[in-house]
Design brief:
The structure holds two protein chains of two kinds. By secondary structure, chain A is of the alpha/beta class. Helices cover 45% and strands 17% of the residues of chain A. The chains are: A alpha/beta, B mainly alpha.
């Protein structure tokens, strides 16, 4: 029994060692943050806890880049240290987000910036944070019933309407449309679906076959599109309220641009090939970098400069087509995306 | 003192203690926004209770799942039972409309526990009736039950009545923003689980069939009853965790506790339960859950790259299981030598 206890003790101590060993990894990801013992304390600087939906989703990585850029610029401008503490869970989980809000508050965050995976789950934690003197701002996906001071993001109903409005002329005003809708639990995505359906009623020649939900990974989304296309060969238009499947190259070969047209939200580097090929002649880009950049600006205005900030700060979509592909590609590169193909950067 | 040091839990407690000291020393501090006092980033009542709260939902399920593991089985469906119990409770309470606080609480509790027991009984009956390994049965029900939760809820996040949140977030006189109820529930469930396993005849039977099912059969134990019973207990604890989770966070949805079955099983094995059956402890399962949550907490508190979280927990689980097997083989050899 003594041997067994000693071995279990060894095992758990080895785990502690493993944690310590991992501290040296990914310097780039943590370079802009102070070490734990010297983190920006309340009163002498700003420590903003940023909690996006999932750290595996590239749109949130660009939001983080924007937040860190804003923190750096505003630190110099106002002469205070501003730290972004990235507390995003690896996979979407509202419960974990709620736990991380509480953790951020316990560790002295000056403000919390969150994109809510499940508004119902995080509302209580947001209210607790605000009750303990920590202001909370939401971006991308709101928790409107909470005491957050502001929300920055697109109007989701209008985004859904815009997707359908762009898709209808591409289909000649007639045909069958499938809606690709991501996680059915996210309130912002549900609103976009409602917007697509609402707009579709204006086109008598267009009917919606159904709304298709899926796990929000590129492969799962692409597989869902192919499954649906096989089951409904008459579908000639895809209203994608997020660009998940376009992060793969699968649909470039599996769908015929002469028969099917896609309009999707988001236009990140991997998706630009779909515009060039004509399968997705229009992408409606959310400037995801600005999620971080603008939100940090607003938090600094509210917390440091004590200014009033509007409760709803609308984000405008950018329409990306073949005509402005080069301009958009260069914009993405300026925002820190390293995977923008050279071919697009050279386009006018 | 010697008895405490010689206890089965001493190793885990010591490691949790050492990790706690490391975190206290390295976490740094901040100025409290309301009082202006300097507060250690780890060693403060908020963080400690928050850590215990985060662990409590896993730990409550881990106690039930450990009993299944001790019996030689495995329950992969606990996360899905959690989701279905939470969603059913929230839907039922929404359909019933406003009621008195006690009635709301009791109906919510009964529904969540009832769904947990029903799902556990379904698992047990299928394992016994179809004579299929629990891994396969619970793998199937993991998808079935989550699918039922999905269909029933239309993937909506359903709010639960505020009275449940008030109960789950009662401060019990500890001050605002301190919520000890999930932690206390975890302690009570662990104590009940420990008494069940070590002080009751049924608990002894669970160890017996996990240690040697054939010998237990020949000694007259009704294996089918024990097998169904352990799955019912596992379902019951998942239902209770769902009740606490939905009440604490204020809503329930079909994606709740996705992947938690792995954390629950990891808690059991890190706590020393043998997947071969016959070995395990409710207290150790709770300590295993606390250790896993503490590891997650330390990654963030010490500003390490959190992308290492899955790697560390995976390594912890493998190390625990490998060492468990190695130590078992050492013990067997020692006993063999002693018998000569």
């Amino acid at each position: 029994m003594r041997i067994r206890r000693a071995m279990r003790l060894t095992a758990t101590l080895a785990i502690c060692g493993l944690i310590a060993a991992c501290g040296g990894g990914d310097k780039g990801a943590t370079a802009d943050r102070a070490p734990a013992g010297t983190s920006a304390p309340a009163g002498r600087g700003l420590k903003i806890a940023m909690i996006a939906k999932a750290s595996t989703n590239p749109v949130f990585l660009s939001a983080r880049t924007g937040a860190e850029a804003a923190a750096k610029e505003l630190s110099q401008k106002h002469g205070i240290p501003i730290e972004i503490a990235w507390l995003t869970p690896p996979a979407e989980d509202g419960q974990v987000q709620a736990q991380r809000i509480a953790q951020a508050v316990n560790e002295g965050a000056s403000a919390v910036l969150i994109s809510c995976s499940d508004a119902g789950k995080v509302t209580g934690a947001i209210n607790d944070a605000v009750g303990r003197g920590v202001p909370v701002m939401t971006f991308d996906s709101d928790a409107p019933q909470s005491s957050r001071f502001a929300f920055y993001g697109v109007d989701d109903i209008k985004t859904g309407e815009a997707v359908m409005r762009e898709l209808a002329p591409l289909m000649g005003g007639k045909g069958k449309v499938a809606i690709l809708a991501g996680n059915q639990n996210a309130p912002n995505l549900r609103s976009r679906v409602a917007g697509v359906k609402q707009e579709a009623t204006k086109y008598p020649g267009i009917s919606i076959v159904d709304t298709f939900y899926h796990i929000e990974t590129p492969q799962d989304a692409a597989a869902e599109v192919i499954r649906v296309q096989n089951a409904y060969p008459e579908v000639s238009g895809w209203a994608m309220i997020g660009g998940w499947p376009l992060f793969t190259q699968t649909l470039l070969t599996d769908l015929d641009p002469k028969k099917v047209k896609i309009v999707a939200v988001d236009a990140l580097p991997a998706e630009l090939a779909y515009v060039e090929k004509g399968l997705a002649p229009v992408l409606l880009a959310q400037p995801t970098y600005k999620w971080g950049y603008v939100s940090v600006e607003k938090i600094v205005e509210k917390v440091h400069l004590k200014q009033d900030v509007p409760q709803i700060i609308p984000m405008e979509l950018v329409k990306v087509t073949k005509e402005n592909l080069g301009t958009w590609a260069r914009q993405l590169k300026d925002w820190g995306f390293t995977d923008v193909p050279d071919a697009y950067l050279k386009q006018p | 003192m010697r008895k405490i040091l010689a206890s089965e839990q001493a190793g885990l407690v010591l490691v949790i203690f050492i990790l706690g000291i490391l975190l206290t020393a390295l976490a740094g501090s901040h100025l409290d926004r309301l009082t202006g006092a300097e507060v250690n980033n780890f060693l403060n009542s908020y963080t400690l209770i928050q850590t215990a709260t985060d662990a409590s939902f896993f730990a409550i399920m881990a106690v039930g799942a450990t009993i299944v593991v001790i019996s030689g089985g495995i329950d992969l469906s606990v996360g899905s039972i959690y989701a279905l119990a939470g969603v059913t409770m929230a839907l039922a309470l929404r359909a019933l409309g406003p009621m008195g606080p006690v009635t709301t609480f009791m109906i919510g509790l009964v529904i969540a526990l009832g769904i947990g027991i029903a799902c556990g009984a379904l698992n047990g009956l299928m394992v016994v009736g179809l004579r299929v390994h629990p891994f396969v049965i619970t793998l199937g029900t993991m998808w079935i039950l989550r699918g039922v939760a999905f269909v029933a809820s239309h993937a909506e996040s359903i709010l639960v009545p505020p009275v449940l949140t008030r109960v789950a977030k009662a401060s019990l006189g500890m001050g605002s923003s301190l919520y000890p109820v999930p932690m206390l529930t975890m302690i009570v469930v662990t104590a009940v689980g420990a008494v069940y396993l070590s002080r009751t005849v049924m608990g002894r039977h669970v160890f017996a069939i996990g240690g040697n099912a054939e010998a237990s059969r020949f000694s007259g134990l009704r294996l089918w009853r024990i097998q169904i019973g352990v799955f019912v207990i596992s379902g019951l604890t998942a239902g209770l965790a769902a009740f606490m989770g939905a009440s604490f966070y204020g809503s329930a949805s079909c994606v709740d506790a996705t992947g938690y079955e792995l954390y629950v099983i990891a808690s059991a094995v890190v706590g020393g339960a043998s997947l071969a059956g016959g070995k395990g402890s409710a207290i150790n399962a709770m300590l295993g859950a606390v250790l896993i949550v503490l590891i997650r907490q330390s990654i963030r508190t010490l500003h390490f790259d959190q992308n290492y979280e899955w790697i560390i927990i995976g390594c912890a689980t493998i190390i625990a299981v490998v060492l468990d097997r190695t130590s078992a083989s050492f013990t067997a050899r020692r006993l063999a030598r002693a018998a000569k």
